[in-house]
Design brief:
With 370 residues, the protein is mainly alpha-helical. Helix content is 48%, strand content 4%.
Length: 370
């Protein structure tokens, strides 16, 4: 705990989750930015007044009790992988990490009440693309997926390995996906991605980060290229892909759609995989992408596979109060969330509480006997 129980770390976490600067929070809560800064750094010798904590509570939409708990597992920069990280502003990344930290608290709360799969993600370092290909193949073998089989539900594969997939972490177009390997390992996907084939590739890409980059700062061209290559090799294993793509060196679009239906990946991923394995040359590769752009398939491909919802996080929330005695209101009380805070954090509606009607005395109308 902190000064008289107040946690400046929790204040910073809530502020960043709401996307506020210290100045903006101070203005809304009628406190100086300096005071907010001192409180967040736990440098104030005495705790904040009750009315100031109440003001923080109202502005940030958390219960006052939220600020008197420990941040047990903060998501640190070194642990986090952002898809499209190079273009994501630092403010957005801080907000995503804060949101993910709060979701991690919810996941750990659920783990104590439900039997989640044990984390089983192998760690395989690689310095070259051959090593990345080998890591993807070994990962398939480790999870007993078969060497040459299409993955019908890649999200289920990752969740069975003990990594919950959660959608809707910050409405930011600059962050397609995000993952973290640590005490609480999670994958987050942008809920506004409408392409199921792109969704599957993003899951495999984040899986690549978890496998290849434990303890390594990601976000540069090398680590992103490695995660992309892992995803390609994981979803389209080399031996089977070579056999099914053929050796003509040409791109037949009816055949590309056949491959898409079988392997449940995008046309762009198929073309890129063919180029990486030298099944087509650079001119054919560029011409194929030009054709995809001309048909505007890069903004919405035809013949997309059915969307597959994650199967751990939301079903566990919905089971509270049904499969176990703990309810969602109890979760909010324990974690210090308001109903709105719960909805903002989880993306799920707070249940409507039906309170029994109170007995009302009936008074006789004027002119009627009592």
């Amino acid at each position: 705990m902190y000064v008289n129980g107040f946690s400046g770390d929790r204040l910073q976490l809530a502020r960043e989750f709401r996307g506020l600067t210290q100045t903006a929070l101070g203005k809304k809560a009628v406190a100086s930015p300096t005071l907010v800064s001192v409180l967040e750094r736990n440098k104030k010798p005495e705790p904040p007044s009750d009315d100031l904590v109440a003001a923080f509570s109202e502005v940030l939409d958390f219960k006052p009790s939220f600020f008197y708990q420990r941040v047990a597992d903060p998501f640190q920069e070194i642990e986090c992988n952002f898809r499209h990280r190079r273009t994501a502003p630092e403010k957005i990344k801080s907000r995503v990490r804060a949101h993910a930290t709060l979701l991690g608290e919810v996941v750990n709360y659920l783990r104590l009440r439900f039997k989640f799969p044990t984390l089983d993600v192998p760690m395989m370092r690689s310095e070259d693309l051959e090593g990345v290909e080998r890591a993807a193949q070994l990962c398939r073998e480790h999870w007993q997926l078969g060497r040459d089989n299409p993955l019908v539900h890649v999200g289920r594969v990752v969740e069975r390995a003990g990594v919950p997939i959660i959608t809707g972490v910050v409405e930011a177009k600059k962050v397609d996906a995000f993952s973290r390997k640590g005490p609480t390992t999670l994958v987050f996907l942008n809920q506004f991605i409408k392409s199921p084939s792109r969704w599957a590739f993003d899951i495999a890409h984040e899986c690549g980060h978890l496998v290849l980059h434990d303890g390594i700062q990601t976000g540069d061209k090398l680590t992103e290229a490695q995660a992309d290559r892992f995803a390609s090799a994981f979803l389209l294993p080399e031996r089977a892909f070579r056999r099914e793509f053929g050796i003509s060196g040409k791109v037949s679009w009816p055949h590309m759609f056949e491959l898409k239906r079988r392997w449940r990946v995008s046309l762009s991923a198929i073309i890129r995989r063919a180029y990486d394995l030298q099944l087509i040359d650079a001119v054919t590769y560029r011409r194929s992408y030009q054709y995809i752009s001309m048909r505007r398939w890069n903004t919405g491909e035809p013949e997309e596979p059915l969307f597959q919802e994650p199967e751990l996080f939301v079903p566990a929330l919905q089971a509270l109060g049904v499969s176990v005695k703990t309810t969602i209101p109890q979760l909010c009380d324990d974690l210090g969330y308001t109903p709105k805070g719960y909805k903002d954090i989880t993306g799920q509606p707070f249940p409507i509480i039906n309170t029994p009607k109170q007995a009302v005395l009936s008074f006789p109308q004027k002119g009627h006997p009592s």
